[in-house]
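hey so u asked for the seq, here:
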Amino acid sequence: MSDVSKRFEQLVKSTYKKFLDQGTILPVKTQEGIQVGDVLIATDGPLKNIYKNKELFYKEISLNAVAIRIANLLAWNKSQKRCDELYKKDLEYSRYYIDSKIFIDNYHRALKAGNETRAEILWTRYEIAKEKAIWAKQVAEDLAAFE
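ran it, structure tokens below
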């Protein structure tokens, strides 16, 4: 093994140890999904499901940061309350995001139909839902951040 290879291996090991010391388990990509310790993050289209020891703990998570943080908390057997709070914030984001997509779709339909009053109302509702989705995403990602 060359000198550079040894130094690189030492760097990788020390970095991995630093993450473990901070309470972070690095995710590893597998055929089933992303493995974080004994926790698996399996994708279902754009959504993620979290399994621990092949038991489904959380389903249909939208935000990657939330999925990784919940997986880390579960892998370390940390606060179930914090996991539930993260999951609730992710669901809130998902709800606002889907609402915004529905409103924008209906807005375009109202425009095609020539119903300008309805289109204006739907545009306003879209803007409100979009802003709420942006806010909910920020709150969820801040809560999911690693210290």
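The chain is about 65% helix and 15% strand. The two ends are 36 Å apart (CA to CA).
lmk if thats what u needed
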